[in-house]
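Handout, page 2. Input:
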Amino acid sequence: MTTDVFYNGRFIGEVENPEHFVESLKEKRRAQESSIELGIRYDKNSDIIFLITDVGRVLRPLIIVKNGKSKLEQEHIESLRKGELTWDDLINLAIIEYVDAAEEDNLLIAISEQELSEKHTHLEIDPIAMFGAIMSMIPYANHDQSSRLNKVGRTHKQALGLYAANYFNLINSDVSILHYPQKPIVKSFLYDSIDFYPAGQNVVVAIMPYEGYNMSDAIVLNKASVERGLGRSTYFRPYTSTELHYTGNLKDKICIPTKDVSGYRTEKSYNYLEEDGIAYPEAELKEGEVIIGKVSPPKFLLEMEEISLARATKENSSVIRQAEKGIVDAVFITIDNQGHKIVQVRTRDNRIPEIGDKFASPHGQKGVIGAIVPEEDLPFTSRGIKPDLIFNPHGIPSRMTIGYLLELLTGKISCMAGQTMDGTAFSKPDLKAFEKMLLELGFRQDGKETLYDGLTGKPLEAKIFIGNIYYLKLKYMVSNKIQMRASGKITLLTRQPVEGRAKGGALRLGEMEKDALVAHGASLLLKERFSSDNVIVHICPKCGSFGIRDKLRKKEICPLCGNQKLETVEISYASKLLIEELISLNLFPHLILKNKYED
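Output:
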């Protein structure tokens, strides 16, 4: 009985003793006789050996275990401390090896040295090594629910900070920078080990409801904190225009369009352009105002017919997007490899937190601002501390983010003691020591305090858990999302409103929303929302086909049966289009008319 061997998905041969073959191959890899990135997996169910060297696999280091004993001994650790040994030496000595996800299926990995047995094949360097770079930076991550930690990865990627040190020389689309980023007070040791720009701020958080404004996942912010710079950021948006060259010695021109140009906007639109057709730095532009002026030649014969020789060029300027504004931050002018002039203008917009902006803690507790409350109306402690942010207590039990509470508690100790604290996952926080430190600092040992109502000055009945925690402002801001529409542009084919915020469309009222309105009995609203593409058609009452009404001769005729008396019916243009498309498929739907005076 032989076992098939596949190399990167290709069959390369067979072996008689698969276990011996796999072990000998691993020994060769450890002795560096083969690539250290080689993945070796023996699937016993299908009796196949997979050898993998494909790019893009995630490899992670593990300590090799032989006969229930770790190959990394105390003398190696001492040599590492003294600098006599390096990471590469540990790999060369076959103490540590890299394994991929496929090979990991056949391994038994111990978390700590104490639990090693004869069956174990590898040992974790540190329990935190099972996490990725982002997750290992979350304080007390092992005290949070696993599904919440998966959400954290995405949340951290959306957090605002300094995305690059040279951001002022870059042209990136849809980016923001946080004005006052801070390092966390309670942090993992990894935070200082990797070159990571801070992406959040330390805030005072009280866990309590506030007048219903932080219902569900919403948060309440202190207006004074916002005015002092909490969560303040700048949003950058680039605008690009290129002078293209066309056949027939025609080309675009970046300039201030003149009034004889086809599609000329109002004179006010070009107010901020200088002689070169580009808006000057620090110009404050609003929606619809031109930032790069450009005129283009007619590209097709059809356009040539439409445009007279006197108006032979078309207006083709770049304008500020709908529902946006910006200050010209920088202008970059260059030439591409084909000799086309490229103008790139970067605008900036100061973003102060407002209702609807999204914030999150490092523990996956995300929510939008529900209210920004004046400082004098907020509850305060006996020491006069007012929270920067109020978080709803209902977000804790179901999410099981105990790490959030631990960070809040240790953050409080850190601020009062004037030191940063290690919150590395699996570091086993000493709760007794924390309680003792709080008592020494003059607080209750459970981190709760008596808060006083900002409106009445009376103490609140419940003791409130209050402390310091790291919070992230996320890139999703209400100014980039807000949509509104009355009447406006429609699609040429269906005559229905356009889709998308950038085009001036609104949110779709679909079938299920329609059902909700029907159940509610809001018939007039339904009529209004579903009549955006109404059209009057002329129907033949005899054969049920579309007829023709000649307005000039004042005649009506059915092209199918010749009937000269048609009825007018109001239907949606989408329905008319569907019927016409069915007719084009040789399917003839008859529209049977009923007398509207009959029951």
